[in-house]
Amino acid sequence: MAKWIFYSSKLIANCIKSTSIASNAITVGLLSPQALSLQSTRNTSFYIKRPAAQLWKSVTSVSNAGRRRGRGKGLVKARDLNQGQKIGHGKVGMLFPGLTTSVIQGEYPVQQRRLTQQEQENNSPKIQPLIKPKRFKLHPLKRGWSGGQPGGRTIGPPDSVDGDAFNGFESWILYAKPISVMTSTMGRSKRVRSMVITGNRKGLAGFAVVTGREFKPAVNLAKNRAGLRLMYIERYNDHTVLHDFFSQFGKTKVFVKQKQKGYGLKCHRVIRTCCEAIGIKDLHVKVEGSDNILTIVKAFFIGLLQQKTFEEMANEKKLHLVEMRKENNYFPTVLASPPVVRTSKEIPKNEILDFKQYVMNGKVALEKRKRDSPFSKLPSWQFHLRKQERLRNQDDVVIKLRAEYDDVCSFHVEKYPEARAPKWSKHGKKKEEEEVET
Amino acid sequence: MYRRINLLLMDFYKRPTWNCRLCSTAPRATDERDPRPFFFDQHVQKLLKTLTRVDYEKIFATRRDETPLKLPEFKFMTDEELAEAREEIGKKANRRIQMPPVVKIRSKEPKVLVKEPELQGYEETNLVFTDISFGKSNRNRIIVVRETNGTLRHANSNERHRMNQIYFPITGREMHTPRMFCNPYLKDLLEQGKFEFVLDRACLQFEPDDPEYHRVTKQVYSYVNKLRKFDALRSTRHFGPLVFQLAWENNIDSLLLELIESENMEEAGKLVRLYHKVQPDAKSRQETTENDLQLVKLYVELDSPDRYMLSGVIPKYEEMYKEKERLKRGIMKAHGLIDDEQEVQDQNEKSKT
């Protein structure tokens, strides 16, 4: 009896099992015939055959001969590719039994599944993210004159001396370049030469040249030494030089011209930086001869220091020095007067009375004549000029019409609305169309 | 009933002739009088010039009119040359502060020459004939118009302006009145304090007898007077006409107040004298005193429309003046410039007078 019950129950159980398997198989599609898609895979490759160290070495190493020729520059450096990631943990949170968790928890085996968001937040291990080395970026206005060269960069005020701080000062690197010297014992020894100018933009400025072993100390030393060699330079109305002058140092010649407010600094970039440090805002300088930075600066500073003040000029000439400006209708402003003024009879006939000639010591700078453009004689240029002539007042007319009628249109526009210039801008055209629709 | 009265009043207020208060002492007929003989009177011109205060720094100040600056000229000068240059600049200053004339508004009706109805319908538009021969000024050039109905008449002011501007253009003068003289813009400009700019351009754009010129200048003057921004126009050519206009309209009180507060009694006296010249029927005119303070006091008592404001300021000024005098004497005494006896004598003399 018992045997029968056992068989029958087994049979029933088997039957239920087979039906459930069949139903499961149907839903998955195992029982239906399938066309197998074959994909050829190769389970070995160059990267699998070799260990990581060997692979890295092949990329990062250069022969000694190559290194001497400079091939080692810009090579890849070996790094840990596994840094910042852990196997089994990724962007999508998954539970892998045996990898991220134990296979059996309590009595039940753990199923592989997706983690909910909360679980993912709780379970994710703390992995240090891969830190890419940050590129040091300078503000475009602080990058200096050009490229990666240090010339023209600002480096802040000099260090304080005996507790006296350099308030309001700023320093500029004029150059900082590697140089090398041959010595009897050491052979070629490399050094750095730097030139720095510092100034408070109110007339005080100084510069220094320092040669050192390293870049930074050399620049810093030059900056601090420049702070100790300050000179006061007189300016005219705090914006330009006192008068035109010429000066020379070595083979460098400097022709400096006083300019009106708003003219700006039109000169060599080194002199522009010097002017910035001194506080000169309007100036024109032509540098001729050698363009060595040191000699340019020296020539410019010598010229500045040799300027005559207005009192000196008046005393030397024994005449009033008077300034007249066109914008003030040539109102005579006396800049300086001597204690005793000469009369017109006491002035010899051949004396230089013209201010510009007097300031340049009677010399006249030869200025190159500006040549006509090579195309100005071509017939096509004449043709172009003829075509452009009728447009010469167009801009003024447009401004006037806009002021009068708020638009570029004819005075007939009230009577004939089409007497209006077409609107070229996209926005304007759209607006016009909308207006027409409404 | 009330509503009707209100409507009537509203209509009354809206009238353009409504420009003075009820019961005001200002003569109503100011517009009818011709200011030309008063303005061009020699004494009046002199008074106006002294009231303008010739300050070279302001007259020759740099103007921000977008012209690029130029390099200054430097010159070595002897004493004589410097004096000559200064004399020259004095002449230039006089030319710069020459006042634009204050004259009556011109009549609108153009003079009709001939009426010839037989020419009626000959032309569809008016014909304008302009005498462009050499040597005629813009004011006395003959410009006539033949109308479509056959009338031949002199051109009206608008037509004259157009014709003159076509044949003899003045740089900077526009054919149409610039928008800045119309009100949202004019008000903005006044709020920005650009009085001189507005007045300069008005002088350029209009003739002095143009009604538009009168409208613009009067608006600027009243604004300046209301806010007492007299310093903005001092040492410019517009200060004289401003003072003249104020005296003409019997409205010099705030200017007088400003002068007294800045302790400029001499100018205050000159202002009152100017007032007497311009307003012949002023009550204080009969009293003749040389003392400026007395003159101002008399004006305040007899003629001032705003007596209370001014009568408060004068005692303050007197007190201040006395204090200053005492301080001055004290300093002189401390320096040993005056003896005590002399002081006593002086005081006695003073008390006698």
TrEMBL record, chain A:
UniProt key word Mitochondrion: yes
GO BP annotations, alphabetical order: translation
UniProt xrefs under InterPro entries: Ribosomal_Su5_D2-typ_SF (IPR020568), Ribosomal_uS5 (IPR000851), Ribosomal_uS5_C (IPR005324), Ribosomal_uS5_N (IPR013810), Ribosomal_uS5m_N (IPR048584), Ribsml_uS5_D2-typ_fold_subgr (IPR014721)
Compartments reported by the entry: Mitochondrion
Protein origin, superkingdom: Eukaryota
Listed GO MF terms: RNA binding; structural constituent of ribosome
Keywords for this protein: Mitochondrion, Ribonucleoprotein, Ribosomal protein
Matching SUPFAM superfamilies: dsRNA-binding domain-like (SSF54768), Ribosomal protein S5 domain 2-like (SSF54211)
A single Gene Ontology CC term: mitochondrion
Domain S5 DRBM: 187-233
Family classification: Belongs to the universal ribosomal protein uS5 family.
Record's protein name: Small ribosomal subunit protein uS5m
Species, as recorded: Melipona bicolor
UniProtKB/TrEMBL annotation, chain B:
Stored InterPro entries: Ribosomal_mS22
GO molecular function per UniProt: structural constituent of ribosome
Listed GO CC annotations: mitochondrial small ribosomal subunit
Domain of life according to the entry: Eukaryota
Protein name, as recorded: 28S ribosomal protein S22, mitochondrial
UniProt lineage: Eukaryota, Metazoa, Ecdysozoa, Arthropoda, Hexapoda
